[in-house]
Amino acid sequence: MNAPKSTPTAARCYALLPCAGTGSRAGTAQPKQYQPVAGVPMVQHTLTAFAQVARLAGVLVVVAPGDGVLTSDAAARRTVAPCGGATRAESVLNGLNHLLAHGAAPGDWVLVHDAARCLVTPAQIDALIDACLPDAVGGLLALPLPDTLKAEAGGRVAATVDRSDKWLAQTPQMFRIGALRDAYAAQAASGFAGFAGLTDEASAIEATGAQPLLVRGSAQNFKVTYPEDFALAEAILRSRNA
Hints:
Elements: E1 13-18, E2 36-37, E3 40-41, H1 42-51, E4 56-62, E5 78-81, H2 88-101, E6 109-112, H3 122-132, E7 138-144, E8 149-153, E9 156-161, E10 167-176, H4 177-189, H5 192-196, H6 201-206, E11 213-216, H7 227-241
Parallel strand pairs: 1-4, 1-6, 4-5, 7-11
Antiparallel strand pairs: 2-3, 6-10, 7-10, 8-9
């Protein structure tokens, strides 16, 4: 008698939010992810969006050791892990290792998202998942560059750069957990400077020779970085709620 065939387990999707930064460019007295926007800490808007995506198996928030602002919430499928590093790249790598140590499989997907992109919507997250699930590599939300692009030398324009193939990278960025962990680990092994220079997950994947998929995002999915960004984010959130 032939042995029964096993049914392959479908890959799960997790979200990972590095939330250990200090937000020095934002000019806030506290880490910018906790700065109030429309009445609540900015990161709460981000978490609310991910909590509404039902097909996520869990949301891992990576915070700095000793940071007790956020707590785990089983109802929201949210786990808070105090394993943040000195850089975003370190926090992401630590978070990936945490996922693998707590039940996630290397073949599962992870959506890494900046906590400060508090205007992301469940629809945008779902669109990324839909586009990446059948893809061999994975991909990221991004936006074609809308403005004229200049190269600079000594504070003056050196050249106008062709923008026709230029995109602004956003998050979430979605890749297999094992592939992304290995890509980050390889960069870390190459030397601290190169590892610290990784500003997004796609860069790590690109370094392996793979080409991530570009999935059109939204201009509203910007990263709150400078003081003036807070007022804009608040205006958009209040208009949505109205």
